[in-house]
Every structure is written in structure tokens, then in C-alpha cells.
Amino acid sequence: MTSISLIGLGLMGTALAESLAKAGHKVTVWNRTDRKPTPEGTTRAATAAEAVAAAPLVIVCVLDYPAVHAVLDDLDLNGKVLVNLTSGRPAEARESAEWAVGRGAEYLDGGIMAVPQMIGQEGAQILYSGSRAAFDRYEDTFTPMAAARFVGEDPGLAALLDLAMLTGMYGQIAGALQAMAMIGAEGDPVAGFTEDLLVPWLTAMAGLLPRWAASIDERSWVTDVSNLEVNSNGLAALERATREQGLTGDLLAPLRRIVDARTARGHGDHGLPSLIEELHPDLHRS
Ligand code: FVH
After folding, report:
1. I need a surface site. Which of 1, 21, 131, 152 has the fewest CB within 10 A?
2. What pLDDT, in 10s, does the model give residues 66-120?
3. Rounded to two decimals, what is the model's pTM?
4. Distance, CA of 71 to CA of 61 (rounded, Å)
């Protein structure tokens, strides 16, 4: 059994606290306001200082990094392991690591790849970066929340990977919503289309991503799938069809813009992975 303090009783903080208490840990919780109930099996501290003093391991999961600092900046963190599971940018994670280490704490930053309902269940994962020694010491303690994966000693790595994975997710959401709008605009039910056709199609297309990644690592833009000229025509047809349905094509328009710009510069024979050169100035070779 480990003594753990958990700061932040939002939807995620509450799920984390409950999973730790259920696993038999001694969990002290604190939240800025009294609006949130005390999770079952935990003890509520009257102040953040009291919560931090209660355990060697302090987990914080609040709205954002300014909120983390609003709570912790004036407190004594000497000798603590601070695990910050608040979502943020890599730069914020690196700054917070420097700040925590400067106060005598060991620091881990975390990216939660789950929604609150998944915490404590199979499929939930938390990425950790920062102090390897702290991770090794507490890995078993973390596991009841979600599978624990250490991704590196650069404290910004977990946030980077978290944001990169969310970026992939938002791209998929944008495409899926546009597709559902096309079906819905005809008055047809979206559910059947999504289940029978869209999900299997997206799953099959996701299987191509490792090949894309290899092309990007090798900077090889030759394609045997479909070149940019073909995709430019496809995206133009798609935009025209959606306009004819009275829909906006706003979610996909930026993709069409960069496909067209690269095709216009004479790279119509390149594959879609070559678009990465349009996103990153150091990758812009042609
Ligand atoms: N919920 C989710 O699905 C996602 C999954 C991936 C990771 N995120 C991140 O987790 C952080 C917390 O998210 P949450 O869902 O628990 O958020 P809320 O339910 O809105 O609770 C927010 C808590 O933050 C406290 N808080 C806000 N501002 C301050 C502040 N200035 N000082 C101290 N605490 C603050 C708030 O307290 P209160 O309003 O109840 O007093 C809540 O405890 C977040 O980074 C997600 O991106 C969740």
C-alpha cells in the first residue's frame, strides 16, 4: 500500500482517485472548491498544503498547467515525487519539470490516453516521461489507474505523444463528420452507414499508416497507391458534391489546399505522405 495525494477532483481526477483507493492505496484528495464529492475510500484534506504533506507521491490532475502552478507554487515539494497528469504542451511539461526539480522534487509528466470511464479498465493507458527512477519506484502503484508506459527522460515527451495522438484523432473525427454529413444530408440514417461501411473502411485505411511512416522516414515520395494529382481530382469532386448537397466542405478544405499547392508546384506524381514537407519548414526540400 502506498500513500498517495491526489490534487483535482474533476471527472478525471475523481476516476483516478477511485481506482487507486480501490486498489488498496491510502489516498488523500484535495479540490479547489467543495463542489465535487469525496471519492469513495479516500480522505479529503482541508488544504492543498495538507494534501501534499500527507504523502511522498503527489498526483495532480487539474484543468491546465496554470491551475497546477496556482495550487502548487507556494507549497513545499521537497522530497516528493510529483506526477502531473494534467494535459498540456511539451514546453509546459519541460518548464514544470525544471520548476519541480528546483524545489527538490522528482518529476513525471503524464499523458492520459483514456476517458474517465476507461480508468481502471483494460485499454486505458498513461504515458509517463521524466524521472526514470521515480517511474520505476511507482510503476506498480500507477497500474490500477491504467497501463503505465514510460516513454523517455525528456519530460516533454508524454505531452508530445499525447498531442500527436490527439491530432490523429481529430483528423479522423473531421473526416468522419464530413462523411456522416453527406449521408445525413440525403435524409438517410447515419448509424447504418457508419457501422457497415465507414468504420471498416477507416480501419482498413489505418492499416496503411505504417507504410506512410516508412516513406516519411526514408523521404521517399514514390507511390504505388495513389498520387497527388489523383487525390487533387478526388478532393475537388468531393468538395463539389458536398456543395451540391448544400453542405460546407470546411473540415476538408485545408487538406485540398495543400494537395493542390504541391501538385501545382510539379509534384503531382508524389504520394500523400509527401504532404509532410508542406507542414514542416525543415522537411521542405522540393
Ligand atoms: N476528461 C477527459 O476525458 C480527459 C482525458 C484526457 C486527459 N484529460 C485532462 O485531464 C485534466 C482534468 O480533466 P477533467 O476531465 O478532470 O476536467 P474537469 O472535470 O473540468 O475538472 C477540472 C479540475 O481542475 C480544477 N481546476 C480548474 N482550475 C483550477 C485552478 N485555477 N486552481 C485549482 N484547480 C483548478 C477544477 O477544480 P474545481 O473547479 O472543481 O474547483 C477541477 O478539479 C485536464 O488537463 C484534461 O485535459 C481529461
Report:
1. 1
2. 999 999 999 999 999 999 999 999 999 999 999 999 999 999 999 999 999 999 9
3. 0.92
4. 11
